[in-house]
Specification:
Radius of gyration: 19 Å
CATH class: Alpha Beta
Bound molecules: NADP nicotinamide-adenine-dinucleotide phosphate
Oligomer: single chain
Distance between the termini: 37 Å
Largest sheet: 6 strands, parallel
CATH superfamily: NAD(P)-binding Rossmann-like Domain
CATH architecture: 3-Layer(aba) Sandwich
Number of helices: 10
Number of domains: 1
Helix content: 40-55%
């Protein structure tokens, strides 16, 4: 047998879900959400399967015969994409587009993950799924190319969820790290100058699973309601931690220009708020606000 991992969940579960890139922040959230929904889940990390090895992916998915594949595998670090664009393209574009073709061939439904960095951030009005701009970065161009490749000429089998500013337990993203930084540091400097949407990965995974169950296809923005800055988020996080009686060492949170913060050399959209009207139509309810996502994050463990 090519795939040596085992299905989680009860035998005979109705829906078999394979999660690719299951070791990452979004992948872990997708696994947890699919399990919580009662599905039978096969969590495949990079060590289990490299999504760029086309034959192996095909053989594995043919053998596993999943109902859904959720692709959370990617190179999500912008500098890495800029420094090794060909390798990044193979993971971020070629592999997902191939998964789209395999979905049609093998008869599974695919959920792929896009990014708000497909936008340049030239405006001050939330972006809808139909909006287009030339991305500012190699990473953004790759994410857009995968969206285009997956959505062009597709039947109903592909859902692309466009997420933004993910945070969740064990995440390497800045927002994921804020509670720890507030516990450890006297003073926190936070890069200013960008407004966007964000998403608690745990809730995002649940929403993606719900959209899959509702057989939604095409492109859907999956983020919390409300525009946010890193500074707003850090300050709200401190207040919430204190209200919960958690230990907070940090006494001062200071906004600083982007250029003064190391690791942010690549151009990011100054504005990337995503409209959630389509999401809310598909769910039949309002999406939660980012403050609620933050509360869940702190409650469920950072
Ligand atoms: N993080 C955000 O704020 C954010 C915002 C917008 C969109 N997104 C999108 O969300 C998705 C998930 O991002 P994330 O934040 O969860 O990133 P992440 O934590 O870095 O997870 C990505 C996972 O993909 C794995 N991977 C890398 N190359 C692979 C390959 N060739 N085959 C199989 N697995 C591979 C990585 O494994 P290793 O770690 O072992 O290399 C990692 O576990 C991506 O599509 C990203 O573009 C993220």
């Amino acid at each position: 047998m090519e795939c040596v991992c085992v299905w989680s969940g009860k035998g005979g579960a109705v829906v078999k879900v394979v999660v690719l890139g299951a070791g990452g922040l979004w992948g872990r959230a997708c696994v947890a959400a699919a399990e919580k929904a009662g599905h039978s889940v096969m969590a495949l990390r990079r060590e289990d399967i490299d999504i760029t090895v086309a034959d192996r992916v095909r053989d594995c998915l043919k053998e596993l015969a999943p109902d859904w594949v959720m692709n959370a595998a990617a190179w999500a670090r912008m500098e890495r994409c800029r420094e090794a664009p060909t390798a990044a393209w193979a993971i971020n574009v070629e592999a997902p587009v191939r998964l789209g073709r395999l979905a049609a061939e093998l008869g599974f439904r695919l959920c792929h993950t896009s990014s708000d960095y497909v936008f340049a951030g030239k405006r001050r009005k939330p972006y809808a799924e139909s909006d287009r701009e030339e991305p500012l970065s190699e990473y953004g161009r790759q994410k857009l190319a995968a969206d285009d490749g997956l959505l062009a000429g597709q039947g109903g089998g592909v859902l692309v969820v466009r997420v933004a500013w993910l945070f969740g337990p064990g995440g390497a993203t800045f927002m994921s790290q804020i509670p720890r930084l507030l516990r450890e540091r006297d003073r926190l400097e936070v890069a200013e100058g960008r407004v966007g949407s964000c998403l608690f990965a745990g809730e995002g995974g649940e929403v993606a699973v719900e959209l899959m169950a509702r057989e939604v296809s095409g492109l859907v923005h999956v983020v919390h309601r409300g525009a946010v800055t890193w500074l707003d988020f850090a300050r709200a996080c401190r207040e919430e931690m204190m209200a919960r009686g958690e230990e907070v060492r940090c006494e001062e949170i200071q906004g600083v220009p982007m250029g003064r913060v190391s690791g942010l050399a690549d151009a990011r959209p100054p504005f990337s708020v995503l409209a959630v009207e389509r999401l809310e139509r598909e769910l039949g309810r309002p999406m939660s606000g980012w403050d609620e996502g933050l509360k869940r994050f702190l409650q469920e463990g950072t």
